[in-house]
């Protein structure tokens, strides 16, 4: 068992929670940064929390924010990490068009602040740094599949901010010799995926429609294609990237791509419904083939000013040098997410019935 210490920003997010679990299982001491919020925001890591008054714990949460340099310097100083995983970000592409400045501040400058904290504290040779880079960097299609050598063409304020974060990570590696790596991760999902990303939005709606609690699922672009994997596999990849002797930039992907439309079809099929598509563009609808009920409609509000049409990654380098590969297949991912949301809806209805 290792006695390494890790600091994770974004620990309350989907990946942060999976990564914290993985590192604790490996024997790490884990420090996580959570934001102050007016309501609880730690649901994904609540089961890891142990009251320090009751017994010793290897899991510690601290308040912090990527927009606050002094806070980040203090957190690095106090937690004395061997490894820093920078997962915190305003991570929603569509929201970044509405909050571009904040997204730049948290996602781009936030990364710089953390790297500067390492330098200010003289930890250049003592800490390994992981940056949560993204397939959104590829943006407008330049070549497929996308690999570590494919040129970037960001298509949103989010992707532009992550482009800065990517290059400042490379620069601090080259300028100061910091073991700083980028994981260029393609979309990865799971039952705890944020509710407004398309996969979770679909699986929640499918479960709610099945229980008669919702009638219609409203979506935007059904033809965007994504390379979707399972978050559990991808946090294992993050860890392997940091363990590699030489800091570098790595693509983690499944090498398969599927349109949003197919995700919708598979999700409904999991509960025995077949979707028939009719119409085109904003008038397209998805009907239940048996009952004729309209289950899917288009709402143009969900179209993005600039879209990323096609993502498909080439994970060869990670496979050959890190021994990393995804283990969850697309169809199993959809199935797991639908089943988890059905169970959630059932638990919530049960709770409501009991309190009525
Ligand atoms: P989530 O949106 O689920 O989690 C983001 C985390 O960042 C949350 O803990 C959030 O806190 C925190 N956060 C947001 N803003 C700040 C801030 N200003 N200061 C401190 N913390 C902040 O994202 P994922 O877990 O899905 O993704 C993790 C990282 O990987 C992100 O950087 C994302 O951009 C990147 N990425 C994700 C991919 C994916 O498919 N999931 C693919 C490629 C990259 P709170 O819980 O309070 O909101
Ligand atoms: P993405 O994920 O933008 O790829 O970013 P998201 O699930 O939001 O969108 C995927 C695709 O689905 C289309 N889409 C919709 N998207 C949402 N959210 N809601 C809808 O109703 C809807 N209808 C269609 C989108 O247009 C898009 O093409 C995610 C985030 O996790 C980023 O942080 C990460 O960097 C990338 O994945 C890799």
Provide the descriptors you would attach to this structure in a database record.
single chain, 356 residues, alpha/beta, Rossmann fold, UDP-galactose 4-epimerase, domain 1, 2 domains, 7-stranded parallel β-sheet, 4-stranded mixed β-sheet, 10 helices, 15 strands, 39% helix, 17% strand, globular, binds NADPH dihydro-nicotinamide-adenine-dinucleotide phosphate, binds guanosine-5'-diphosphate-rhamnose, EC 4.2.1.47, NADP, NAD(P)-bd_dom
What does this structure look like?
The protein is of the alpha/beta class and 356 residues long. The protein folds into two domains: 5-191 and 228-255 and 312-319, NAD(P)-binding Rossmann-like Domain (Rossmann fold, 3-Layer(aba) Sandwich); 198-222 and 259-307 and 328-355, UDP-galactose 4-epimerase, domain 1. It has helices at residues 14-25, 69-79, 93-98, 100-120, 157-176, 198-210, 231-243, 260-270, 316-322, 330-355; strands at residues 5-9, 29-34, 59-63, 83-86, 128-134, 179-185, 188-189, 217-219, 225-226, 229-230, 249-252, 258-259, 275-278, 285-288, 294-298. Helix 2 packs across helix 4 (100-120), helix 4 (100-120) packs parallel to helix 5 and helix 6 runs parallel beside helix 8 (260-270). Bound molecules: NADPH dihydro-nicotinamide-adenine-dinucleotide phosphate and guanosine-5'-diphosphate-rhamnose (GDR). Belongs to the NAD(P)-dependent epimerase/dehydratase family. GDP-mannose 4,6-dehydratase subfamily.
């Amino acid at each position: 068992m290792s006695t390494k210490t890790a600091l994770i920003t974004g620990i309350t997010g989907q990946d942060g929670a999976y990564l914290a679990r993985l590192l604790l299982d490996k024997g790490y001491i884990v420090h996580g940064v959570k934001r102050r919020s007016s309501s609880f925001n730690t649901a994904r890591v609540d089961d890891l929390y142990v009251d320090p008054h009751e017994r010793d714990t290897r899991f510690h949460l601290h308040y912090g924010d990527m927009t606050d340099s002094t806070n980040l310097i203090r957190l690095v100083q106090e937690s004395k990490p061997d490894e820093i995983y920078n997962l915190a970000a305003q991570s929603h592409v569509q929201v970044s068009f509405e909050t571009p400045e904040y997204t730049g501040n948290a996602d781009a400058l936030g990364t710089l602040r953390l790297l500067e904290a390492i330098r200010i504290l003289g930890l250049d040779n003592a800490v390994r740094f992981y940056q949560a880079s993204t397939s959104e960097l590829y943006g407008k299609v330049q070549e497929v599949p996308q690999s570590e050598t494919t040129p970037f063409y960001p298509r949103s304020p989010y992707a532009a901010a992550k482009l800065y974060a990517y290059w400042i990570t490379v620069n601090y590696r080259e300028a100061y010799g910091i073991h700083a790596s980028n994981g260029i991760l393609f979309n990865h999902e799971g039952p705890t995926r944020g509710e407004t990303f398309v996969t979770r939005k679909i699986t929640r709606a499918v479960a709610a429609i099945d229980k008669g609690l919702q009638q219609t699922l409203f979506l935007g672009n059904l033809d965007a294609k994504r390379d979707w994997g399972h978050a559990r596999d991808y946090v294992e990849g993050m860890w392997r990237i940091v363990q590699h002797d030489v800091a570098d930039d790595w693509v983690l992907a499944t090498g398969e791509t599927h349109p949003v439309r197919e995700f919708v079809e598979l999700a409904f099929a999991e509960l025995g419904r077949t979707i028939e598509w009719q119409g085109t563009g904003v008038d397209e609808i998805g009907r239940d083939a048996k009952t004729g009920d309209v289950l899917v409609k288009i709402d143009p509000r969900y179209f993005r000013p600039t879209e990323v049409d096609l993502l498909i990654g080439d994970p060869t380098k990670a496979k050959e040098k890190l021994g990393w590969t995804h283990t969850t297949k697309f169809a199993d991912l959809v199935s797991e997410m639908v089943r988890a949301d059905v169970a959630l809806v059932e638990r919530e209805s049960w709770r409501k019935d009991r309190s009525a």
